[in-house]
């Protein structure tokens, strides 16, 4: 954040008055609304904005940006507030731009397998809308996040191993830039070599380069057949190695999720699955009926060669749903391991050849630190999550957790990986970017300064001070 | 290009003297070498640099950049010189940085399905190296281009419909930035949400934001089975509509190429294929033996429903090779339509729902303009190429061709497409960027100014004046 953004409070007050008059009941300074528009999902501080505006159009966002520029007021885009790294916090105050009322599905084009939605449309809303047309949007980060927020954080999730992440599935974006201009980042063509890839630059920029107001997304056809299964492994190493071989074998697996022993225990308790208490892979295959059967059989052979047991696949929707509901509920299941504790959900991602080693070392680290922290992972991408359950009233535990989180990020980076595969940087991971990117931080800073010279867009996020 | 880059000739001469002394026999001012390092592939002017340096390491490139910065000398990265839009021309003089001697394959990691190569490694060199390991790099733009050049132009080609373009297949890049710093754009993790996507920003930046010296690429396993076939259609519309339905049906087709009637005539003459003189689709399927058979059968049904005839698929390698050799030789075959003529190879890309309409209108335009211009296309992506054969001594023909090219770009943009799906902007398409991007040109310019304030990196490319 530049010094200029810290102008006199009186100036900020003037901006708020202008916007209050302009937006009427859609402008709020209420304490509870402000609190809800800062981080509420984990142990990180709740840093509320000065005000919240519920916008209904791209043009309104542009209006707000112009006022914010004139008065040097920070703007923090808000979708559903489910970001895990303090993305929506307002450490310098400012205005939360709530896009949840921009929830129109602008166009669905089955013939092009794409759609255009306003930024506040959530992925469930979109998928409910699409179902009748035999289409779906495959990116599933767990939470029912807004698609604008998912683009802004470069979200992915369980299906990414087959369908890619938001990086791969955004065709173009409409965004309001820090000068108040409205851009569309690209055409609707599937590929283009016409100039700099502003789409990919904004995807993952967490509201620090522009405010995304509309998203055009690739869609997929609902597969003719789906098959799912669970498989128990003697160890995390075996489960990881079975994953590696599955990917190397070119099986187009749609989901392959690791749950470590502790997470299986939690899930058994929460969802009554009755699985043996060892590491498991949850898998899913998409394709034609014949292809799904072939994939499942090949995976079964690979799993067996690593001691995988009890593997059965099913195409019955109710069994698949129960299984994936249990996986989706892992967050809540984990909370059951320590009722009343606060959850820190963190993630890391490494080249798949280092996955077994990284997960193995992480579990040893957890044991040594004495934390309660189950692991789930989108292991087909080398991506895994640790849910650290802590008592936030216990300073020693917080210190222990912080030490663990730092070691995890450094371990992943040291294995040619990244400190975050899908959660984003926000406030929580800023401190690791220097280690991960080194000299590449300089062009990132230069781009930020060029596109947001006043530093009004989501200050205090991504780039370290 | 900023005015500052047009400093006194004496200053540029000083820089050349410094670099001549430093690089000895790897520095050349020879007229023929300079000519070869500017555009030689089509009708566009040959605008040679002042000198050529054959570099052997990233550090040498950084040294050159530092001298170029100090003396405001333009630098033009050079791979194989196969770019089609004047990418390697030196309209303001300067130094061609020839990366062809940086041709080491640094690492192949079968366990991660990736590899790291120096920028001068060509795709054939890489694929020959990989073959024994059961792996391949799927992006195939036709020419045996360097992988650094392919990254710089966001190349794609026949396989992109299944495997994606360079945008999707570059894991990270090493690049020398305009301040002489060396960055690596990302880790080797398959996905990351840690900061701005510099990889995708440099992919397609055509040497205007940094000089790519090393590339880490995703690899694919050589499929267990491949099957290919040709299918004749009554009209281009039928061929395009069969393509659209194939994509919508979710068939994971590996290649689907349109050749219009004129191109079939040329290919018959050149390669002796003996195909009926109507539009054709050339297709290829990759997967397991069973999956390939299933895909081919499904495609056959779709093709038949659009009047497709004579469709036969084959898994025999020699037949597949003959077919795809004919497709690859389309450029040379087209030349046979008008011996002695110069070829303008251009491309455009539209949402697939607009493909039939766009190709149809383009063929009508060609007929009306009186040009000889066959069409081939990677139609699964909505991308097609027109090869305009002209007599460059005939001013009227040049004017007619220019008019056609402008209408083609505008037509594609008007159909929510792009003026170039894979060739890049270079010098040739700069004039259409304003129409295609509108207000989004401003952030592109801001990024260029931020990362290359002196404008020394490949000036006169991509961004219009």
From TrEMBL, chains A, B:
Citing just one GO molecular function, the answer is: D-lactate dehydrogenase (cytochrome) activity
| Record-annotated membrane-spanning stretches | none
Q: Where is the FAD-binding PCMH-type domain?
A: 45-222
Q: Which EC number(s) are documented for this chain?
A: 1.1.2.4
Question: What are its cofactors?
Answer: FAD
> What are the protein's UniProt keywords?
FAD, Flavoprotein, Oxidoreductase, Transit peptide
Kindly indicate whether the keyword Nucleus belongs to this entry: no
Coiled-coil ranges (or none): none
Please name the PANTHER family in this protein's record.
D-LACTATE DEHYDROGENASE, D-LACTATE DEHYDROGENASE, MITOCHONDRIAL-RELATED
Task: Give the similarity note.
Answer: Belongs to the FAD-binding oxidoreductase/transferase type 4 family.
What is this protein called in UniProt? D-lactate dehydrogenase (cytochrome)
The record lists the organism as Kaistia geumhonensis
